[in-house]
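To assess whether ligand presence alters the predicted conformation, the chain was also submitted together with S-adenosylmethionine. Input:
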Amino acid sequence: MEDITRQLYAYDNLAVLNDELVLPSESVDLIYLDPPFNSNSTYNLPFKNLGKDVAAVAAFQDTWAWGPEEDEHLARLDAGPRTKLLADVVRFAQQIRGPRTSVNLAAYLVNMAVRLIPMRRVLKRTGSIYLHCDPTANSYLRLLMDAIFGQDNFRNEIVWRIGWVSGFKTQKRGWIRNHDTILYYVASPEAIKHFNKEYLPYPEGYVRRDGKRPTGRGFPIEDTWNCSEGDRLDSIMIKSFSREKLGYPTQKNLDLLERIVKASSNPGDLVLDPFCGCGTAMHAAELHQRQWIGIDISRFSAGLVRERLLKNIPTLSDEDILVFGLPQSLGEARTLAANDKFEFEKWVCGAIGAHGMYHNPGDKGADGGVDGVIEFYPLIMGKTPQKELAIVQVKGGNVTPDAVRALYATVKRFDATAGVLVCFADQMTTVENNRNLDTFADAAGEYPVIQGYTVEDLLQQKPINLPTYRLRDDARLTP
Ligand SMILES: C[S@@+](CC[C@H](N)C(=O)[O-])C[C@H]1O[C@@H](n2cnc3c(N)ncnc32)[C@H](O)[C@@H]1O
């Protein structure tokens, strides 16, 4: 097998970034990071089709609080002669109070500082780093970046226009916020030589001021992106992006990441995304033959990224992607189920490609036990495939007959087509004895409306018995 790095880590990135075996010094060509902002929000996994009576659950909390760990981080920054400056920035932020700049801003900054330092270590001298942030904290992050990477290595503040604003947002008083900021730094001036300048084609019929048609490549791309007709990256509002969407909050656009990957790396280079979410940077890296490492603390993320890549990159197979930090054996899966029910559910949903989870840990609520939703497209001859849904319910412990019967009721309540109950194999007799025996069919065969799927099946990567035709995320690869 070719020795190509494709690695996903379901860990806090601080541990991975400081692991010199995983990430040796000067080993990475390009870092893109899109950390949770200091916006004090909780990001939920939405699923609009399911109605309003379900409570969405947090995919991740976008807030950093100040606690003993932050005290330790600050003390460590203070102790280093070169990092003392970073501690000063954090303390400066601590002193600024206001609705948007509470003490959490300092907690956010101290957490970013201790992660950006090892990012500097792992970046090659020819490498680049793109820090994606919003106006809440970008000026403070700029100070940290200047202190860590050097002011001379600051290249651009890229303004990325997020999308075409509509609806209630347009009613807002004042200027409508519609951009993110991407801070672009290099590890050393040498990196500039490796920059692949990108151009936008001249519009049709374009002539220069002297009336002549231009020769050459087009307009070089500036530091404002997605701001003109000629530079339309898919925006959140544009249809083709909605085809990419995986239900992951804060998912970034593939063509935004492709632009960064193409400009600041070359085929074979190593791309690192330490906050990789549903893996947009990994997807862009694959499309352009780069190697990659993705890290995300959520156990939901790694499975989703794996699924996304396998679905969209036909040449990739399972064993090409190494995943660390998720259960690999039955024993590890049982331990996770026993220790953290919610993380167990996240792991299962991520691993089987289910989107959206609807109840908080231990919370029965009105959701009827919807832990995730699988979208599929049954093949009916002569008809355009239409999306249908399978409700996923995850049980890490005993399964009761009532729970199996309730899943059928939930499927009906949400007008879904199927229900999958995921449990350990020793619970399958209960599932089999109590499940409704209805079936549904498509051109390829017949499927049970309610079915059990075991954690053992998942570990062996056996497919769930649902129509296999699924639309690809990337329109360009759609068959
Ligand atoms: C803004 S999202 C990234 C979205 C991503 N760019 C995409 O296109 O899908 C931030 C991610 O950082 C992850 N995260 C938060 N804290 C983390 C940490 N300490 N280590 C690793 N990942 C973390 C969250 O779980 C979340 O998925």
